[in-house]
Amino acid sequence: MLRALPVVLALGFVLIGRVNSHQESGEWSCESGSEIRLEAQFRPGLVTLDGHADDWEGIYGSEFSLLPALDPDDDDEYKAGKMTVKTVHDGRDVFFLLQVDGEYKYSKGENNKCPSVALMFQVGEHATYHNMGGCEEEADSCTNKTCKGHEVDIMHFSIGNAIPGRLYGGNPIDNRDGNGGDRFGHLVDVYAWNPHCRHLDGIGPSGNDSSAQNDWKGAWWHSSFDVHSGFVEQDSPYASGNPKGTYYFEFSRPLRTTDRLQQDAQFTIGGSSKMAVAFWYPVDGKPWHGSGHYSINCDWVPMDISSGSSVLSQSSTSSSGSTAGIFALLLSVVSLCSSVFVGYRVLKPKGVPFTPMENL
Ligand SMILES: *[C@@H]1O[C@H](CO)[C@@H](O)[C@H](O)[C@H]1NC(C)=O
Ligand SMILES: *[C@@H]1O[C@H](CO)[C@@H](O)[C@H](O)[C@H]1NC(C)=O
User: Fold this and answer.
1) Ligand 1 pocket test target in 144, 147, 148, 264 with most atoms within 8 Å of CB
2) What is the pLDDT of residue 309?
3) In a domain, 338, yes or no
């Protein structure tokens, strides 16, 4: 409970800060709360990547207002609710859950009549949140040389062709082509230097590199669905009408990837990364356009990847209970070993060489 306090304060701070972040004079300004942080705790064996959020229940989440990314005006906040972001890692993969209320909207094959989400991470040291990396080159002049240092890594999931509860993202067919595409569900692995210079991993203005991969996987779900055991495409439109409910988007990616081109963020246990979350929604049924997205903050949100030991040092009842259990088990193993050893010392005849049992 105490852990919630700084974040609540931080959120309050952000809400105040955002009032000042209009793009009134054409100059971008953002006063983001400096205390705002996400933490990916080490929780191995907890999350199944299926779009369902039950397994995340014990994980602490941060709540964010969704304001228009290009002009974060409180009056234009996404009205149906705030977005909760949760993240954990298991030592190999990092997992994200985005949870946001919204009437069920789905139009098969039409991505911009369905909700959509993206995650963005800083890769290059100079990459800013604003302007997706902030390289100042034009679309025809940005290259990995002219925009060096401004790389951001983006995962974008457009669900128009993605069946709820099914896994999308990296797949053998697109990965064989050596790029970040996903022809099945449009959960793509992208990098950018600015909004006009965005490419699938492996594809670039100065040539393609077939060593790239789509390293992301993800699934989505809406709480109005009552079938829990596997939709197929023929089940479209999955739910009738536009019932109210909650959308869940769940993603994972290995902490490290084989990227050699500065197109993937690399996560370090015990380290910190900078991320952003975007959300598109067909407000009033109107299809969204690319720049018409909401964002959880007007700057990067730091994300800490905790090392395993920090979980044990936390004294929540459940984890201290299991820690005590592990300690008791350890003690009993130690005492069993020592009694076997003592027994061996007592029974061992001095100076007698080892004799096989059958010769006794
Ligand atoms: C730029 O990308 C091309 C094609 O992928 C690659 O051959 C080249 O080494 C890259 N240059 C730099 C400076 O990263
Ligand atoms: C790189 O790949 C893209 C998409 O497959 C293709 O359109 C483009 O022609 C390729 N560029 C080069 C230099 O091969």
Assistant:
1) 144
2) 62
3) no
Residue whose CA lies nearest to ligand 1 atom number 13 = 145
Let me know if residue 324 belongs to a domain. no
For 282-314, give one letter per residue: b (16+ CB within 10 A) or e: bbeeeebeeebbbbbbbbbbbbbbbeeeebeee
Nearest-angstrom CA–CA distance, 190 and 118: 10
Could you tell me if residue 122 is inside a domain?
Answer: yes
CA dist., res. 140 & res. 136, Å (int): 11
Full domain range(s) for residue 187: 4-22+35-311
Ligand nearest to the CA of 262: 1
Total domains in the chain come to 1
How many Cα atoms within 13 Å fall on the side-chain side of residue 293?
21
Ligand 2 center to 166 CA (angstroms): 30
Ligand 2 within 6 A of CB of 212 = no
Going by CA atoms, what residue is nearest to atom 7 of ligand 1? 207
Taking only the tens place, the pLDDT of each residue in 69-115 is 999 999 999 999 999 999 999 999 999 999 999 999 999 899 999 99
**Best residue for ligand 1 mutational test, from 147, 193, 261 (most atoms within 8 Å of Cβ):** 261
274 in any annotated domain: yes
CATH code, domain with 58: 2.60.40.1190
Q: Is the minimum distance from the CB of 63 to ligand 1 under 6 angstroms?
A: no
List the Cα angle 54/59/5 in 5-degree steps: 135
Q: Within its chain, how far is the Cα of 88 from the centroid? A: 8
User: For 9-52, what is each residue's pLDDT tens digit?
Assistant: 343 333 333 333 444 456 787 887 778 999 999 999 999 999 99
Q: How far apart are the CA of 139 and the centre of ligand 2, in A?
A: 16
For 246, residues 6+ apart whose C-beta sits below 8 A from its C-beta are 99, 100, 101, 102, 222, 223
Question: Distance from the CA of 301 to the center of ligand 1, in angstroms?
Answer: 29
Distance 203 CA to ligand 2 centre (A): 7
